[in-house]
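Workshop exercise sheet. Pairs work together: one partner reads the sequence aloud, the other fills in the structure field after running the prediction. Swap roles for the next sheet.
Pair: D.N. / O.F.
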Amino acid sequence: MLPPISPSSPTTRRSLQALNLDVDTSHLNRAADNIASLDFTQCHALFRNAFDRLENHPELATAHAAQLTLSGLYQALDLAVLATEQEQKSFTEEQLEMSEAMLTYLTEGTYPIRPTASVAAVMIEIERQEEMDGEYHLASPANYLARLKAILRYIIQNPATSDAGRHVCNLTNIVGRNVASVALPTFIRQAIAYFVEEKLNDNDATVATRTALAAMVASLPIILNVIGAAQERYRRTSTITSAACHALNILLSAGGIIAAAVTGVLPGLASSLVAFTGYCIMRDLIQSVFTLKDGTQAMDWQTAAISGSAYSVEQFVVGVGMDRFGSPSGASAAALTDYLETVVNDLVRAGFNLVAETIDEFVVRGVQHYREGRTFQITLTFTPPTLEAWGNLATRNIAARSALFTSAVMLGSAASAALLPTTIAPILPTSCELISTAATAVAESFSPLETEMIQNALIAVILGAGYPIFIGAVVSQARPPGKSDDI
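Structure field:
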């Protein structure tokens, strides 16, 4: 039986006193709505609407490739919805109440006089956290720090037994880590691209200089994967999966470099490749320190394939959103003098990426929990870094992620450039005049908007197809239950 909340506790006394106060809680309701607004059903609806928009308004994307991409990948989200359908059956209202109770407790030092069993259980545990800090007697309405520490400790440890409590903690832990490991690195990534491009322009960098810089940075994933494969073989920890993933990452990076060089886009990608490589390093270093643990086993290929398909959909929608609402940004904004606009666009892109990667975490972990029949419960832990851990990180996570992202940038840009008549004609042999003429005619039929949509679709497909390879490189070695995937 749930223990009753003591009528003599400081929080209860504050709650009773608050009954006589005219307190406007509308801001709490709005905040609670925002916290509880992200769920699979809404994400599913978002992608459905995006597909319908493209389907019903062909003028937005007459490029057949873009429609085929969404049409083929949209179904992948169905299993993600099914994976959490039972979890979400009845907790929505409870989750809102739980969020509001935590916010009210933090801002006012009170909670409902007649809380539900779930809310009561959470508040009892949070007050116990205050006692552990020795600050329980200081929990006055003005002592926000003590209550904030208690709430954060509860969320991070996630001991909740109710669906509402678990999901509030799950969402907060995932979003909290992604703010540090995704949103912030994305903003810095765009700033790096801006400043590198600006410096290259200021120094009148030649095509040869830009090409050398781009090729050197794009070769880093190849070097790291070669070192990783050799290291695992030397340590006798190599598996068929890990060896195959290293080889595929090498081929992916090499293919991207060749495609970008042949189409002539490699010099123009120098600053973007530097920025994306830095992004991958920052993201994996931060995620190695702040890890999410969920108690699942190592991800299998079926889960990775499902998640990769969903990831393609997410990245297509995000790519279109970034182009529409977050441009110019990064290297493309280097010639502008309006720094405020550039910063705003960088923040917009960071926001889009934060939402996409948060959805990805829920899809990946939701599908894995569903397949294993486990309760979806995530904790956030701090893991002190070590040189050995960061060495392994460089040859596995960073090697795989940088190969995936830089190759997507190069292949997507190469494909987009290949749709330009001025690019197609020089690439094809002079003996193939008929083919060259036909290819040029096809390229001329695409508008800039359609070319942009095709590029986003192709990048999304590359990221989705390479996703299982990335997962395989990260979790190819057996791990005990409870260890983080660090994805």
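Discussion prompt: Residues 64 and 454 are 8 Å apart (CA to CA). What would you look at next?
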